[in-house]
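Structure tokens please, single chain.
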Amino acid sequence: MNTLERIKEEKIIAIIRGVSPSQILSVANALYEGGISMMEITFDQSSPQGIEATTQSLELIHTQMKGKILMGAGTVMTPQQVETAHIHGAEYIISPNVDTAVIRHTKELGMISMPGAFTPSEVATAYEAGADIVKLFPAGLMGPDYIKALRAPLSHIPVSAVGGINEYNIADFWKAGVCCFGIGGNLVDKKAVLNGNWKAITETARKLVTALHEENSQKI
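Here you go.
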């Protein structure tokens, strides 16, 4: 199974933001125990130190969790960051926006491209530039009805839902036709990370996987 097939098969990507390199492996193990084995480690764009911490986390997951975690990089804003993520083992690149240079360089390096878009024009532009999946963001503000309406003329373009997804609404977004999800704070809770409450993260992961599995079974 290649990377794109695995993303569509497993469906849930945990968005890791604001987690230090010293905690990243604990978070990864907690997610894995809960049935989630895809992680998007987001670039901290606030400072050079933040970028360095991101690359440390990417390297740790790549070397310590290879074979368990399918790792990608998020909040990727430049072709240089695409390059950095690739060097440190990322297999897919996720951005909050449509930047054709980022998309094209991602594809040149053989990785999966998932840029973020809001409007039909942005979705079409991203796909034409080579995106494999277009991230609809922020999905929570759009709602399932918006996504369903957008997909009517653009059903040939695979889309993901990111932003505001939780165990209670994930089924509604799945019914709207998305192929996968990115889930951040509703999965990797900041307070749980701060307190080292890894069991809470594992339990939330299990609830999300169960909710999606039950809906997928009904859909089939």
